[in-house]
Design goal:
Order of helices and strands: EHEHEHEHEHEHEEHHEEEH
CATH class of the largest domain: Alpha Beta
Number of helices: 9
Largest sheet: 6 strands, parallel
Bound molecules: adenosine-5'-triphosphate
CATH superfamily of the largest domain: NAD(P)-binding Rossmann-like Domain
Shape: elongated
Length: 221
């Protein structure tokens, strides 16, 4: 059976989640208290309804408990976001993802039992900062408070070197997970694999080690 998704709050963030889910062929129930927003999404999603999600009865009436994944994308109104999340958690919805506006909001959401908390503005800020630090940093993904994955573009000075030559493991404590070359991806490359200029190295490591790598090695390549 297809998974059932619901998105609460149809601002820019919630709206773009709805669109992406629909593009993936997923059935989406979109909910907002604002009639105009609901009308805007009515023809896109499987079902769009007007409801105040801080009203437990309204949520029950929508059968929200039976959904596999509910995304709370209420932004500015932190109180509504928290109350909605609390109701969903108490109803034992399988998976509740919530967008946090700030660190306090995140803390409360975590305490009340949200399964996943996302912080899009902060995450984008972190990614852009890494990109600004080094032009070779193409993308950045935080895995935990300590570990990240980074995509690095190989410059001319390492063209022709092997993974062993680069020796990222002993120099920086980082490991190369994969090397992308145009459409091809070489996962877990062998030590003798040769790097070419323009390859993209996907590297995993502790944040401090990745920072050292970004700052001291990559800009020289
Ligand atoms: P974004 O950062 O995603 O752009 P935004 O500023 O566009 O956010 P917000 O106004 O923060 O969006 O909120 C997103 C939506 O959540 C709005 O359309 C708002 O009507 C809706 N919303 C807020 N509170 C509730 C509620 N209690 N029940 C249902 N929908 C709500």
């Amino acid at each position: 059976m297809k998974k059932q998704f619901a998105v609460i709050g149809l601002g820019r963030f919630g709206g773009s989640i709805c669109k992406s889910l629909v593009d993936e062929g997923i059935e989406v129930l979109a909910i907002d208290q604002d009639e105009e927003k609901v009308n805007e999404f009515a023809s896109l999603v499987t079902q769009a309804v007007i409801a105040d999600t801080t009203d437990e009865k309204a949520l029950r009436g929508l059968g929200i408990r039976n959904f596999d994944h509910v995304i709370v994308a209420i932004g500015d109104d932190i109180q509504s976001s928290i109350l909605t999340t609390l109701i969903l958690v108490e109803m034992e919805v399988k998976h509740v993802t919530v967008k946090a506006q700030n660190d306090y909001h995140e803390k409360v959401l975590s305490r009340i039992g949200a399964d996943e908390i996302i912080h899009p503005e902060r995450d984008i800020g972190v990614r852009i900062a890494h990109n600004v630090v080094s032009k070779n940093v193409l993308d950045y993904l935080e895995l935990s408070d300590e570990y990240s994955i980074v995509e690095l573009a190989a410059g001319p000075t390492i063209d022709g070197e092997t993974i062993v030559d680069l020796d990222l493991r002993s120099k920086y404590g980082c490991n190369i997970l994969a090397v992308k070359r145009e459409e091809d991806i070489n996962v877990s490359p062998r030590p003798e694999a040769i790097i070419k200029e323009g390859d993209i190295l996907i590297v995993i490591g502790a944040d401090d080690d990745i920072n050292r790598l970004e700052n001291h090695w990559i800009d020289e390549t």
